[in-house]
Batch of 2 targets.
Target 1
Amino acid sequence: GDSVTQMEGPVTLSEEAFLTINCTYTATGYPSLFWYVQYPGEGLQLLLKATKADDKGSNKGFEATYRKETTSFHLEKGSVQVSDSAVYFCALVNSGGSNYKLTFGKGTLLTVNP
Amino acid sequence: DAMVIQNPRYQVTQFGKPVTLSCSQTLNHNVMYWYQQKSSQAPKLLFHYYDKDFNNEADTPDNFQSRRPNTSFCFLDIRSPGLGDAAMYLCATSSDRGSGYEQYFGPGTRLTVT
């Protein structure tokens, strides 16, 4: 079945540091890929998405590129802020299947210190 | 703004006392989901509605049930809450008429069982 493996945390960075959170996937068909962010006590927010190979999703300074050859969708940001502290989930939907269920990675807790 | 709304945000119930959580959406999406999330783990899908069709996950306990009286509303009923049911419950929606099949989440209801 489909699966998502993402870098285990916690990750602790200083403000303005470069962020990478690795994510790789296993799926049949042609999945859509997502990064969701969850701030403490809140629901999940869609951060960015990519629906086909070589697509780059971007939002709020975060970027991720859909790499079919390496089955990866790594999240990057050039300069993190304290307000980026949250849990980040990589996920996929296998639109080639008959359902629309999200498969999540385990999540990565990011803490950014001033 | 179009959104997913969950009420209440915090719910306290007694062991064994039935409780209902509600979700509404203004996105006019045809698919609605209920997730259980514990301790910043990845959300665990309990069930989803594709239009009026109910789809239960194989490992969802019988104690959890759902109703979707119309497109906009969906309810989660926990018939006899146990201490292990204390968690964040997340509602999400998606549409099969767009691209990417991304899900949009509500802010969640934090359930405490005493």
Target 2
Amino acid sequence: NAGVTQTPKFQVLKTGQSMTLQCAQDMNHEYMSWYRQDPGMGLRLIHYSVGAGITDQGEVPNGYNVSRSTTEDFPLRLLSAAPSQTSVYFCASSKRKSTGSYTGELFFGEGSRLTVL
Amino acid sequence: DAKTTQPNSMESNEEEPVHLPCNHSTISGTDYIHWYRQLPSQGPEYVIHGLTSNVNNRMASLAIAEDRKSSTLILHRATLRDAAVYYCILRDGGTYKYIFGTGTRLKVLA
């Protein structure tokens, strides 16, 4: 019963490096999203997707790319890491009901802690 | 995107009810009201959600004002395990964007 799996759990990067945070869910959820949480702050939406091949920007999309080639996976790419991207990143998913609306419950992964030096 | 306003922190005694308020004066007709909580060093977990009517589940109750400009999450008997940051969120029914605010940190006193 894996749910939402994020890898890696911890990562240290140097400024200018690129990397991909992986997110996979085994619940056949149509909706997936990425958030970042800075110390002592709430979560801010980076990008989200309502299905394979469909992505859209959230509140803070600059510096990040996403793609959704399968229902299960929603990777987040940091193009050129900056110290301001030091944060904890959460992936979340939700299921669409047969009526087309969403159940309203987001399932979160355990988070990926990224430090950019 | 409509925003929510919550008190930064609240305290409650164990075994007593807790009422966590949320203001969302710019809510639109298609926005759902969600509550999540985040325990230390964990991802947020779903608590409850509603659109217009009051809602109950095993974790909590959600009371929504008639004009929908505010709501209250009710924990009927607070336990030490309920100490967390509680987020009131509006979900845009059209775009399905979940926008978190800064939340209320609930401290439960033994």
